[in-house]
């Protein structure tokens, strides 16, 4: 593992500070750790049309793919809380699990997901969060 848990969580927390969440006030940050040692972050970006909110994890994956990344996803850190304060542990929503799976399956990795809350860090593999995933391998 190239990435240190607490360092990646710190990167997610730094990203969380850039969240645009004036409607829910729930600020989320995500950090993606890649095999080459690099880190790509994202925060949630909400919309006046509430249902169009973009999650932190999805924004991070979109950023990474727009930089040309197509694999190497080793680790993910997620932090979230009301007004950016620590709270119950946040695991990626269902859509974000599927979006993360695209990048993971492209590079044939099963990234560890560190979900940081006020009392604990939950450590889960993506395959545990999204078992029997549908992905690019199904279309090959
Ligand atoms: N949110 C994320 O950014 N990631 C998740 O995994 C869960 C939810 C965002 C979406 C919305 O802006 C706010 O949190 C409240 O749902």
Automatic annotation (TrEMBL):
Domain CMP/dCMP-type deaminase: residue ranges: 3-137
* Residues bound to substrate: 44-50
- The UniProt entry annotates the active site at 57 (proton donor)
Q: Which GO terms describe its molecular function?
A: cytidine deaminase activity; identical protein binding; zinc ion binding
What cellular-component terms does GO give this entry?
cytosol
GO terms (BP aspect): nucleobase-containing small molecule metabolic process; pyrimidine-containing compound metabolic process
First-tier enzyme category under EC:
hydrolase
Q: What is this protein called?
A: Cytidine deaminase
Q: Which organism is it from?
A: Novosphingobium ginsenosidimutans
């Amino acid at each position: 593992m190239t990435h240190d848990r607490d360092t990646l969580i710190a990167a997610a927390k730094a990203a969380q500070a850039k969240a645009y969440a004036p409607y829910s006030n729930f600020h989320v940050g995500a950090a993606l750790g890649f095999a080459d040692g690099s880190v790509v972050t994202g925060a949630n970006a909400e919309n006046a049309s509430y249902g169009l909110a973009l999650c932190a994890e999805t924004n991070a994956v979109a950023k990474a793919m727009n930089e040309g990344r197509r694999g190497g996803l080793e680790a993910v850190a997620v932090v979230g809380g009301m007004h950016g304060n620590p709270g119950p542990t946040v695991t990626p929503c269902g859509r974000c699990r599927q979006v993360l799976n695209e990048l993971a399956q492209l590079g044939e990795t099963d990234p560890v997901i560190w979900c940081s809350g006020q009392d604990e860090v939950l450590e889960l593999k993506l395959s545990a969060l999204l078992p029997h995933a549908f992905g690019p391998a199904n279309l090959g």
